[in-house]
Amino acid sequence: MATSRHKITEELHSGSCVFVPYASDSSPEDVVPGMFLSPEEICWHDPTGCLDQIKEINPQCSLTEVTHCPLKKTLSNIYPGLRDFFIDGCGVHETPPLSSYLQILLQLSTVTLPSQAANAVFQVFLKWSDGLKSGLLSPEDIIYLKEHLMKLNCAVLPTEYDKWISLHPSFGLVCWSDNLKLWKQFKHFDKIEFLYFGKLSEDEKQILQTKVSVLMQTIGIPALSDVVTREAIYDGLVDSSFKASLVGWALPYAQRYFCSVHPDKYVKLKQSGFDLLNRLQVVVVEKLYYRNVIKSCGDSCASKKRIECSCLLQDNVLYTTQESDSHALFMELSRLLFDGTPDLHLANFLHMITTMAESGSTEEQTEFFILNSQKIPKLSNEESVWSLPSIPSQTKNDDSLQTSFDSTKSKKKAGNNSNWPPVDWKTAPGFSYARLNGFKTQATAAQPSGSPRKDDSEGTVMETDNVPISIEDDWTVEDDYAAASKALVLSANLENQSGNACNSTYSDQSGHAPNHTVSTMHVDFDPVDLDLVSDGPELGASNFSSRDHLRFGNPNAAQAMQTGRIGESVAFKYIIGKFGGTAVKWVNEDFETGLPYDIIVGEENSREYIEVKATKSRTKDWFNISTREWQFAVEKGESYSIAHVLLGKNNVARVSVFKNPVKLCSLGKLQLVVMMPRQQKEFSVVS
């Protein structure tokens, strides 16, 4: 019995033994015309819908044009209920083989318009993407696809202008749009063809960005942003010595970060002899703009739109203006190490180190922060430290800015640059007194450990111990409802100017805001609802602290960062106790992200965002909030909260939470304050 079954199976596999009617709408009792096909010529069903679309548009072609398509029919609608028999017994493919879809698309392109078949083509690309990831699409299959798509007569790619094209050079540059703004600038150029996949759902758009994009890159279809470069346009060359010194000072820190976080990339760069750094130039200009160009399409393929900017890396030249801030400069510098893509984390890291230097932190304080907070180890003694040994004193032309880098000779100590950072930032070119919000920087001499320093305002004493409290300590958290009813909010970019936890970095992502917690360790997670408090005179403006001046004194940047880190850790562990580890995420747990929030609570569709502000001073009834944080407080509304953490003695912390601070300010429950520099020049107002 088993032998005969085996023989029957062999017979079914070897010949054209499956009857397929020309029309599939007949009943089983009807006598209908058709033909016998082999298992290799049919499949059970096509999940992309291509074969069904071919049959609907041109029913006759599916069986009569045998030579144009190896798969001519699906059986699921002809023999429902016989799936196991055909697949297991007859050897019929459940779905078309991945390599056969190219011929299916060719047949589809002969019977329908690109706009009608666009989504079916997307489904085929998705099948290929899954095959590429799983290994079902072999390297030989990839070569087959690339070779055939390069042929002029293999026009199976739909475009936005409703025509079928291939990757043949005669069609020009073929790409897909991953950037709406760039697409608007280049959509009318004759030498560029944009693929069209129909009207995609939000999920399909995400799949296009994450999965299908990998396939298209593999077969030679780039994203628009990958082929667009920025061309610098500038007016007037000025002295570049200060900016070049800043870059040269930051390079050793960038090297430490790059070597630690991206060791594979670092090894590759080292094998090249650090050629990119060897050719790096710093050019400072009066006005800087750029336009987008696609070099592969010739000189004529350039956007007419000119965009003003403060920094721009083009090839080996880092253009910048005197007014550019350090974070923008470091974002552009990071492109040099990441194939033209800015790296926010590296820029944030360098910006924090720069902020500490601006605030007068000692080298020991900075090193402590790098090793213990950022977890960036020192370079090995065998590594040659990156540097820009040749710093131009005055810009005459581009050639005079050429710097040199010898990876075999440079042994310069990290951060040890004679021109940067200057001791007194009030006199530093490009970093004016106003840039520091009017606050004089701290001297570079270290403060004796354990000695308190008096603030200039209201006799407040700010602790400035150089040895910070470990964030691993256990803290007892108490409610602070009273503080939640009378706090001041400073709306200004004054990060790290006091012992509160303000982000000292920027973000290129959309910002968020905090969730909301005020309770003890063993009670429910309930916010302080100021709407339930009486609106009587005691909560009016007179209840807020009355003062003529609100000053920061001389801030200790390292201590401020450590205080913020401890505050975030206390808030994070406390919230985990209420919601569990799976529902709470501390975004800065491993490294400073630069996001305008510190903790996320909940899932994607119902998230709450918590910004933590921490202090060690019991008399300090205000905290900084950056303009970016405030903007997203406005955007998120009830989903944004600020958790104020008071770090007291004996590891006792008190928490106040302000849910929707924008609303609280509008109701008079919180107050916004705009700080001005101490030294003000007289000016006149023209009405």
UniProtKB/TrEMBL annotation:
Organism from which the protein derives: Castanea mollissima
Any one cellular-component term (Gene Ontology): nucleus
Ranges where the record places region Disordered: 387-423, 442-462
Coiled coil segments of this chain: none
A Pfam family matched in the record: NOV_C
InterPro entries reported in the protein's UniProt record: Auxin_embryo_med, NOV_C
Location of the Protein NO VEIN C-terminal domain: 567-650
Comp. bias regions, Polar residues: 390-407
Protein name per UniProt: Protein NO VEIN C-terminal domain-containing protein
One of the protein's GO biological processes: embryo development ending in seed dormancy
Origin superkingdom: Eukaryota
